[in-house]
Amino acid sequence: TKLIHDTAVPGVKTCVMPQMFIYHGRGPTVENTREWASQSLKTGATMFDWYNSGSPPSRVALPAAHKEMLRINRVASTMNKLELPAKTATAIYFDQRARWGTFDNSLYSWYTLYTLLGENLHTWFRFVSDGNIRLGNDRFENYRLVYVPELKYTSRDIAEKLVSFVKQGGVLVLTDPETCRWNIDGSPLTDVRRQLLGGALGDPREATSLIVTNGFMGIEKGAELPLTPVRARKGAGKHFAFDIAVPADGIVFASYADGKPAAYSRRVGTGQVIYFAAQPFGNARLAIQGSSWTGLLSALAEKVAEPKVEIWDFMFPKTGGEVEVKYIVHQPE
Question: What pLDDT digit, counting tens, does each position of 234-250 carry?
């Protein structure tokens, strides 16, 4: 919901269609229904359009969940409108071209960051899209910290805007080793990568975790930063990791198990680039599994003075607004 809300043209209302049918042998429970509706409302939904078709329809196949849907509709239509945070220093960049280029069907890297920053750390952020930047509705300079989970393919214009953002004092966190590797017209963006990273990308390699070699952003030396294999995109089933050549001004803070460098930080202009040579969020496992990534993200939030916000605690009440549902049973002759 938040991705759709944030990347839509400003002023457009967000309609969410929660599941209200049996899918892959499973149907939503009462608690599922309340949880999904709560998540949607607190991240920007302005209306619900429950999908409750099917044979038989949900009012017959899922009577308890159907009653909960009706109850939530009544509560939502009579409660005060939720006030979402108006400002944030943090952005997660989303580029449709990058998604298309890797045939990414599930957006696990973006979803995991959403869960860790929001539901876990309770900090606010905004998804920033290539579309809204091109239309002039948003700009990187509106933020102090920008995460780029996936960006192998992008336009030269966007790539150069990222460079400008860092040079002007922004903090850029790159968890895609191939960030800004190719222009959407097929030409390489080697010069942009050189400005951002200073070093060079080597060959793909095996890796299941990174080890912090020097204390960095509150993460102690020796801490493990686990990696997850990518799913539902090109290269599915593999860990996405590379050997790298670190620039002279790069400060290495994590390595692979064999001691080769795996992550570093460097100054670019008055800003900072934090680069990882391996994709940690290939699937959604780290969204629910505790790890040192949470500590790193928390330290970055503190760096840009991103406060915790109470909106992440919102849940529809368990009771109130109950709707009586009556059924007429037809007895065939």
Answer: 999 999 999 999 999 99
